[in-house]
């Protein structure tokens, strides 16, 4: 069961939530979705709206769902479920049923998918994207993150709802 709050009332730093605890980025709808673990991203304000920034490599199955659907979620587990999030980051939804493999239970919120075990959820709507390219890297050390030249697509999404578990 989730309760809606204002995103500004979150009790943890978004840097901790994404970088340290990780999150699941999930796109799709009931019966047609995929999720992947993210440990890069951001939360802030852009164009007068509260937004998230998420990064998806071109070979990730989740990219197909991000392209197909306007809504997505970032689900946070406050550092719990690291093993399950590890599976969701290492294995592809093309090959396994991530919910069955991890025991995470899908929960449908509006037109988006999250998980019953999540502690916090940002329900988002895509508003922009941009493909990263090396010509935009001002620091040459960034290139080390792309030995296969598989540069991320950056998605910007407005935060439509912020939910916490009750």
Task: Tell me briefly what this model is.
The protein is of the alpha+beta class.
What can you tell me about this protein's structure?
The chain has 166 residues and is α+β, with helices and mostly antiparallel strands. It has helices spanning 14-20, 61-68, 82-90, 98-102; strands at residues 2-5, 23-29, 32-38, 41-46, 49-56, 71-76, 106-109, 112-115, 120-131, 153-165. Strands 1, 2, 3, 4, 5, 6, 9 and 10 form an eight-stranded antiparallel β-sheet that branches. Strands 7-8 form a two-stranded antiparallel ribbon. The longest helix is centred in the middle third of the chain and has 9 residues, at 82-90. The termini are close together. The model has no long low-confidence stretch (mean pLDDT 95).
Strand content: 35-45%
Termini separation: 6 Å
Number of helices in the DSSP assignment: 4
Q: How many E strands?
A: 10
**Could you list the spans in which at least 5 consecutive residues all have pLDDT below 50?**
none
What kind of sheet is the major sheet? 8 strands, antiparallel
Helix content: 10-25%
What is the 3D form?
globular
Main structural class? alpha+beta
Alpha carbon gyration radius: 15 Å
Q: Write down the overall mean pLDDT.
A: 95
List keywords for this structure.
4 helices, 166 residues, 43% strand, alpha+beta
How does the SSE layout of this entry go?
Layout (H helix, E strand, L loop, with lengths): L1 E4 L8 H7 L2 E7 L2 E7 L2 E6 L2 E8 L4 H8 L2 E6 L5 H9 L7 H5 L3 E4 L2 E4 L4 E12 L21 E13 L1
Antiparallel strand pairs: 1-10, 2-3, 2-6, 4-5, 5-10, 6-9, 7-8, 9-10
């Amino acid at each position: 069961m989730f309760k809606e709050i204002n995103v500004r009332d979150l009790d943890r730093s978004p840097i901790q939530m994404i970088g340290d605890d990780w999150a699941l980025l999930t796109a799709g709808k009931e019966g047609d979705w995929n999720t992947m673990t993210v440990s890069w991203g951001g939360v802030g304000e852009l164009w007068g709206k509260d937004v998230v920034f998420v990064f998806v490599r071109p070979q990730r199955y989740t990219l197909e769902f991000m392209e197909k659907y306007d809504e997505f979620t970032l689900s946070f587990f406050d550092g719990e479920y690291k093993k399950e999030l590890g599976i969701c980051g290492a294995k592809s939804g093309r090959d396994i049923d991530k919910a069955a493999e991890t025991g995470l239970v899908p929960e449908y919120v509006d037109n988006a998918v999250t998980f019953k075990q999540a502690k916090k959820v940002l329900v988002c709507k895509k508003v922009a994207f941009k493909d990263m390219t090396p010509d935009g890297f001002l620091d040459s050390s960034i290139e080390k993150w792309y030995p296969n030249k598989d540069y991320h697509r950056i998605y910007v999404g407005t935060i439509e709802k912020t939910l916490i578990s009750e």
